[in-house]
Amino acid sequence: MTRRLELPDTPGTAALGAARMSAPSALRNRDLIAAELRRVAPARGRALEIASGTGEHVIRFAEVMPGLTWQPTDPDPLRRASIAAWTVQSGLDNIRPPLDLDAARVGWAEEEPLTADLVVVVNLLHLVSGAEAETALTEIAAVLSPGGVVALYGPFLRDGEATSEGDAAFHASLRAQDPAIGYKDVIDTCACLVEAGLAHVETVAMPANNLLLVFERSDVA
After folding, report:
1. Which 3 state secondary structure label does DSSP give 153?
2. Which residues does 172 contact at the CB level (< 8 Å), separation at least 6?
3. Cα–Cα distance for residue pair 82/173, rounded to 1 Å
4. pLDDT confidence bin for 113, thresholds 50/70/90
5. Where does the pLDDT of residue 16 fall: very low under 50, low under 70, confident under 90, or very high at 90 and above?
6. Alpha-carbon distance 135 to 130, whole Å?
7. pTM higher than 0.70, yes or no?
8. Under DSSP, is residue 216 helix (H, G, I), strand (E, B) or coil?
């Protein structure tokens, strides 16, 4: 699933040491996402973050939701090194070592010893193909515990259309680099998780035309 894309805020390491990376968008949105997660997340249990990137999200989430044990993941070894370095720097003891996980790989939910009461995905789906996104969502649903919550944050198309000129331009720039990737439609995303057995709880409007989509597994074990 790892692609080398030209993005507006490609993470850098300036002034942070050899391993820690920083992404401007993560610093801009992590407090807003954390506030919404606190509202919908279980108070205790296991939280799985998919495609944790630099690690700047998970250290904030773990700080404000200390009752959850956080499992960051990423398929990129440089990102995993950054996650580990940020975890050490944070001093938090409710973050596990980052796991090498490609969420778009078919079958990982059965192979990995993972179950989660909360799954968080931030800014991933527009960076993978439609088939990869469907696989990731189906596998995520499979690891969710009864009563568990999935929270997806990012940009989405509405009825097949971007909602701003900026979003349309970014979507086009992604498609120019790889025609298979780009923004996913919010209806298709919701339908995929509902088909996988989850219930759509709410859609939260976030800054910069982003959305937070919240789902839960209501079936009893």
Report:
1. strand
2. none
3. 27
4. confident
5. low
6. 9
7. yes
8. strand
